[in-house]
Structure formats: structure tokens, C-alpha cells
Design goal:
Layout: H1 5-22, H2 28-40, H3 52-68, H4 75-84, H5 89-93, H6 95-101
Helix pairs in contact: 2-6, 3-4
Length: 105
């Protein structure tokens, strides 16, 4: 028995604290850089500036519906739900740049 129950817990706690860096979790700056890249991506021509608020509202409503259905709103799940609602395919494929432009999504 004393082969390290306590030390294993201690090591686990330390590895949890250091884990995100070791596992490749991006830094806050890295996340912001990624979001900035996505924001600069051109949206498909089918999504005009006039349509953008409506498309973003549709995405928001889909996210809310997924939470209401107790489904984690992962990208592929959200895209599937958007397709089920007959959302513009351009909006489905441009989901990440759309979300990056609107922090409330």
C-alpha cells in the first residue's frame, strides 16, 4: 500500500494545473489571433451586409434550440441543425467567420 496514493493525487493535481499548456490549449492571445483571422475572412457573396443580422439571428436561434434540447452546440451539430431549418448553405459553411464577427454567438 504506500506506493503513492497521496503522491499520485498530488501529481495528478499538478498535471491538471500544467495540463492545458502541455495538451496544446491555446493561450488567450492565440485565441484572439484565431478570432481575428476568422473575422477577416470574407463571407460568401450570398450573405450581403443587409442579410448579415438576419443570418446571425438564425444562428443564435439554432444555438438556443440546441441548448433547449440539451445538446452541446458543437460546430457540426449546429451546421446540421441549420441545414434542417433550410438555412442558406453559405451560412452553414461560413459558420465560424459568422460567429467570430458576433461575440454574442
Amino acid at each position: 500500500g504506500t506506493s503513492g496514493g497521496g503522491s499520485a493525487t498530488s501529481l495528478h493535481a499538478e498535471s491538471c494545473m500544467d495540463g492545458p499548456k502541455k495538451l496544446g490549449t491555446p493561450s488567450p492571445e492565440g485565441v484572439q489571433d484565431f478570432l481575428n483571422v476568422l473575422r477577416r475572412r470574407a463571407l460568401p457573396a450570398e450573405i450581403s451586409d443587409e442579410m448579415l443580422p438576419q443570418v446571425q439571428q438564425t444562428v443564435f436561434q439554432c444555438i438556443v434550440s440546441l441548448y433547449r434540447d440539451r445538446i452541446k452546440p458543437l460546430q457540426n451539430v449546429l451546421q446540421r441543425r441549420l441545414r434542417e431549418l433550410c438555412c442558406l448553405e453559405a451560412a452553414v459553411t461560413a459558420l465560424l467567420p459568422l460567429c467570430a464577427r458576433d461575440p454574442s454567438l
